[in-house]
Structures are given as structure tokens and as C-alpha cells.
Amino acid sequence: MKKIFTHLTFYVFVAIITAIVLGIEAPQTAVKMKFLGTYFIEIIKLFIVPIIFFTIVLGIAGMGNLKKVGRIGLKAVIYFELVSTFSLFIGIVVGLIFKPGHVDTTTLPISVAKNQSSTENFSWLAFLQSNTTIQALIVAIIVGIIVNNHSKRVTIIDFLGRIAHYLFLVLKYIMYLAPLGAFGGMAFTVGKFGLATLLPLIKLVACVYGASAFFVLIVLGSILKYYGINVLHYLSAIKDEILLVLGTSSSEAALPSMMYKLEKMGCSKAVVGLVIPTGYSFNLDGTSIYLSMAVVFIAQLYQVHLGLEHLVMIILILMLTSKGAAGVTGSGFIVLTTTLSALHSIPVEGLAFLLGVDKFMSEARAITNLIGNGAATIVISKSEKEFVSPIN
User: Fold this and answer.
1) SS3 label, residue 152
2) How far is Cα 359 from Cα 140, in angstroms, rounded to an integer?
3) Is 273 helix (H, G, I), strand (E, B) or coil?
4) Contact 23, 187 (CB under 8 A)
5) Quick one: DSSP state of residue 328?
6) What's the pTM?
7) How far is CA 7 from the centre of its chain?
8) pLDDT tens, residue by residue, 207-259
């Protein structure tokens, strides 16, 4: 029993429960707790770029074989595209089966979609300029290749390795603040939006969480099982990161510790460094489920019949537009607006119905994204025989 009280997981869990109670009983006070979650995430963000840089440089320089690095990158891109497309399909199927949009619209909370329903088109240049994770990835790959071919490669690797060691050590102590961050994020969400806003759209929220759970346990579970990994053991191994994302609604909050955790599980430094940062921008399984289901939800809300050609078009459009749903505030609504505008038959105004409960669905998206990227790292490590020890 004493062992439970020594785990960070326990304190994060207590913080989340306490935050929910505070949000219900004293919403005005709960909203003021936002700064705890915001500052914690900002502190963690300071570590993202240097950790990505050192992990990738050390991984590529230590691997020696640059052809292998290229192969890992290509495998990751192919895996991301296949799995994220399948997650789009799951979102549509669950939406069609359970019909979350078949509700009385007079009971729905309608918010004004300020700026978020912009018809601004997605730009790859703007995406790269605003996404520091991708920028760090590109720079680190270049530096890693240079170090790999340097005459003093071993000396440089040893020096960078020591810096990375102390970087992770500092991060370890900062993670003790995770309960405060989770408390602040959850208290603000419940206090600001209130659990009552969930009631009219509880079916939609339940469908998003249900589809996400199905994707993780069945789809990712089957993939991991093929490579000899028990999905429940995997989830247990990253429970700290899952709870942290649940509390803060940000997968970025767990990125540095997730990279460290995956290395401890047995994934090679090179694979972790290449797959995780890329996945955070291109392998958004949870976001894909939400986006496709949101389109179906709005269509049902306005009683727009979706034929096979419409469903195929939704998947094809989201395969392109969903890649821009990371790193830009409000990008999810921009992606949805672009998709609805391209379809012509579904009113863009339907986005206003989503704003009231979007915050409650962001946890499902972020957690599924986190789990999906971790699973991708394990799969590619296994396929490359870069997985040194089993986690189960």
C-alpha cells in the first residue's frame, strides 16, 4: 500500500479528481487555476526542442548506417499514412452506426465560432514555419549526418551524451510538478465550460471516446500483438504520460518523458528520435477520428444524406487537410472548415455546435495521439530489430 503513495501516477490522479470537484463546486475559483496548467506546459515545451535535437543527433551518429536512417524514416511515413487513414475510417463508421447528430438542435449550446471557422487554406510553408518540432527534427537530422561522418565522431557523441543525460535529469525533477499542471488544466476546463454543457452532446462525446478506445485496444492492440507486445502492458508502462495528458489536454506535455520512457522500454535512440517528433505532426490518430466523426455529426445535424461518394471524398480530403492539424491554435476548426467547404453540401455553420464540448473531447484526441505515436515507435523498432528488450 505504501508503494502507491510513492508513484507520481497516484498524485496526478488525485489532482485530476480534486480539480473536477473544484470545477463543479467553485467554478470561478477553478477557472483561476488555469495558470498552473499553462505554466507547466510552457516549462515542458522548453525541453522539447533540445531533447529532440540531442536524441536524434546521438541516434543517427551512433547508428553509423545512414541508409538505415533513411529506411526508418520511410517506414515511419508509410506507417503513419496507413494507420491515420484507418483512424479516419473508424471515425466515419462509428458516426454512421451510432448517429450522434440525431438530436434536437433546440437543446444544443451554440457558440459563435470566432475566427476558428476561417476559410483560410492550409499552407505547408506556414506549417513548417510555425512547427518548431519539425524544424528541430530537420536540423537534428542534418547535424546527425555531419557528426556521423566526422573524424572525431566518438568524442562528439560522448560530449553530447553527457549533456543529454543532465537534460533528462533536470526534466525528471520538473515532472514532479505534473500534479499541479494536471490540476490547473482540468480545473479550468470543468470550471469554464461546466459538465452541464456535456449533456446535450453527450452522445457525440461518448462516440469519440468509444471510437478512440476501440482504435487503441483493438486496432493498435492487434498491431502490437503481431510484434509480440501486449497492449495493456504497454498502456500500463506509459500510464504517467496518459494521466498527464488527461489533466493538461496537451500531448506536448508528455512528449519529452514519452521519448525517455520508450527508450527505457527498449526502443533504440535513433528510432525514438525520428518517429516521435515526426508522429506528433503527421500521425494524429485521435485527431483523425475526431475530424471524420465531426463531419458526419454536422451532416446528421442538418439531415444531409452522405452517399458512398461523399464518404470517400471526406476521407480523401481529410487525408490531406488533417496533416495540418498540429501545432497551430484553432487548426482543428480550420481543417473542418476546409473539409466542409470542399464538400459544399454540409453547412459550415454547424461548427458552432461543436465549440461547447470541443474542450471535453480534446483529452481523447491528445491521449490517442500519444498512444498511437508510442505504438508506432515500438512497431518500427521491432521491425528494424532495434528493440533490445520486451516490455511485457
Assistant:
1) coil
2) 34
3) helix
4) yes
5) S
6) 0.82
7) 24
8) 999 999 999 999 999 999 999 999 999 999 999 999 988 888 777 788 888 98
Q: Which of 227, 220, 221 is nearest to 283 (CA)?
A: 220
Instruction: Report the alpha-carbon distance of residue 33 to residue 37 in Å, rounded.
Output: 8
pLDDT in tens, 272-282: 988 888 887 77
> Letter for the amino acid at 146?
I
28-54 pLDDT per residue, tens: 999 999 999 889 888 988 888 888 888
Cell matching residue 5: 503513495
Q: Which residue type does 234 have? A: Y
pLDDT in tens, 369-385: 999 999 999 999 999 88
Q: How many residues does the chain have?
A: 392
Give the span between the Cα atoms of 375 and 313, in whole angstroms: 28
In this structure, are residues 278 and 76 in contact, taking their beta carbons and an 8 Å threshold?
A: yes
CB neighbours of 224 closer than 8 A, spacing ≥ 6? 230, 231, 234, 375, 378, 379
In one-letter notation, the amino acid at residue 377 is T
198, 360 Cβ separation under 8 angstroms: yes
Helix %, strand %, coil % of the chain (to 5): 80, 0, 20
Q: What are phi and psi of 305, to 5 degrees?
A: -75, 130
Terminal C-alpha separation, the chain: 23
* Nearest-angstrom CA–CA distance, 391 and 266: 7
